[in-house]
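Marked as duplicate of an earlier ticket. Keeping the data here for the record.
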Amino acid sequence: MASRCFAYGSLMCADIMARVCGRTMPAGDALLPGHARHPVRGEDYPAIVADPAREVAGRLYSGIAAAEWERLDGFEGNQYQRVLLQVRVDGGATVDAWAYLFRPQYHSLLLPGEWDFAAFLRDGRHRFEARYLGFRQIPP
């Protein structure tokens, strides 16, 4: 199993990722081609879906262990499906990484436009951390 996770939303924040996984892990910038990131109606977090004309910037975490994948799966919940994809890293190399795609049955919850990470950091992060139920799905 690939031990890399491509994060494109709240998990781009290293401290949130560490809280979910239980430790800090190495990360770098990466791009996911063929996908688009959209806001989710009523939420501060985004979702990604396939879109051949777009790409999504995010963070690539490596060295994720099996127990940490269980924590990530619980955090993401049933709206997301973990899928193995190829991402581009600095220098243009392509590597396999797992990413959480929004399941098709929930696509009606997606809003048009690009989710804004800067706005999340400025306006949504505090709300997200205070209310997001996914944090309750991971063991302490």
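See parent ticket for discussion. The longest strand covers residues 46-61.
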